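Exercise 7. Given the encoded structure of a 334-residue chain, write a plausible sequence.
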């Protein structure tokens, strides 16, 4: 690959309102935006990293700058896999290389990746862990939603009230819950019973990373998805017999290249696939939308939490997300 010009920018993405999960409250999301330019074509990538791994934007920017000379001499996606570990820095660069490759080839990223021609995807819309009446009101505000994801915190009584309030407000929608590691294995049977009665169809990461072995003795009629337990491709084989679904996030695994590999490996091992996000603008959702064409569950609502999105943005209509090639990954992003 010929020489490249690298640009690295750090952006602060303001949320419209605070967002609560187990142990954290977020009021904004930092992002690093990478551009790779060969003088004729350019590619872009956005990443926010993984806060619970201390993979923060300032560190990501420093790590990228430290490899500037190597990157600007010319690098491809295979070399990038060796140069950076999984995480946000590699994600931003990998996505930029995918778009650059699409520009040079005159073909969209989805075609280069061997993915079917994209179609709109039903996406979940996420409700932060708030009082039950607040979450119910939020569920009603998401009038177009066909699928909702509820954040839980590990307080069984409060979580039960949250689920009941949302189900009463929206009896017709698909509901999944995300405990963000908030429960113990011993508490799961009670949680699963309550969720089954409420018609919940997915339980995401109920137990802490490192405690997955306890799931081998849990017989759940509701599929259980791995999130924090599935950081990169090397984690996928260990999920078999413990989880039913793999939640692939590009910030965790380090880009679309590894995300696609994770999806294919999960399928090979008999697991279902979900695509998620660590918040971000439409520029971060666009590569994940390509991956989403291979997935059973799609959770790409990140821009809906922001005060401002990119000028070229994904669209949310009738509970679905649509990403035009002009947003990212098309033969020409100009």
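Solution.
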């Amino acid at each position: 690959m010929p020489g490249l010009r690298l640009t690295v920018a750090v952006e602060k993405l303001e949320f419209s309102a605070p967002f609560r999960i187990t142990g954290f409250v977020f009021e904004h999301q930092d992002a690093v935006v990478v551009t790779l330019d060969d003088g004729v074509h350019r590619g872009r990538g956005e990443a926010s990293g993984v806060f619970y791994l201390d993979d923060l934007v300032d560190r990501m920017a420093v790590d990228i700058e430290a490899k500037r000379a190597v990157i600007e001499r010319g690098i491809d996606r295979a070399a990038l896999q060796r140069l950076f570990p999984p995480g946000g820095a590699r994600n931003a660069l990998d996505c930029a290389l995918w778009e650059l490759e699409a520009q040079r080839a005159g073909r969209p990223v989805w075609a280069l990746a061997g993915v079917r021609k994209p179609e709109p995807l039903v996406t979940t819309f996420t409700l932060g862990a708030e009082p039950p009446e607040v979450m119910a009101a939020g569920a009603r505000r998401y009038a177009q939603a066909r699928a909702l994801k509820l954040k839980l915190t590990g307080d069984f009584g409060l979580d039960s009230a949250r689920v009941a309030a949302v189900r009463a407000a929206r009896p017709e929608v698909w509901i999944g819950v995300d405990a963000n590691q908030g429960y113990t294995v011993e508490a799961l049977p009670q949680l699963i019973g309550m969720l089954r009665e409420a018609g919940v169809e997915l339980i995401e990461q109920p137990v802490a990373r490192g405690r997955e072995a306890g799931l081998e003795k849990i017989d759940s009629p509701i599929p259980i998805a791995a999130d924090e337990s599935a950081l990169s491709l090397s984690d996928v084989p260990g999920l078999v017999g413990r989880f039913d679904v793999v939640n692939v996030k590009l910030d965790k695994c380090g880009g679309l290249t590894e995300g696609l590999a994770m999806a294919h490996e999960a399928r090979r091992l008999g697991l279902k696939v979900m695509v998620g996000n660590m918040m971000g603008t439409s520029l971060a959702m666009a590569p994940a939308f390509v991956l989403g064409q291979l997935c059973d569950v799609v959770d790409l609502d990140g821009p809906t939490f922001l005060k401002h999105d990119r000028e070229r943005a994904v669209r949310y209509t009738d509970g679905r997300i649509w990403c035009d090639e002009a947003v990212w990954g098309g033969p020409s992003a100009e």
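Remark. Residues 88-105 form the longest helix (18 residues). Students should compare their own answers with the one above.
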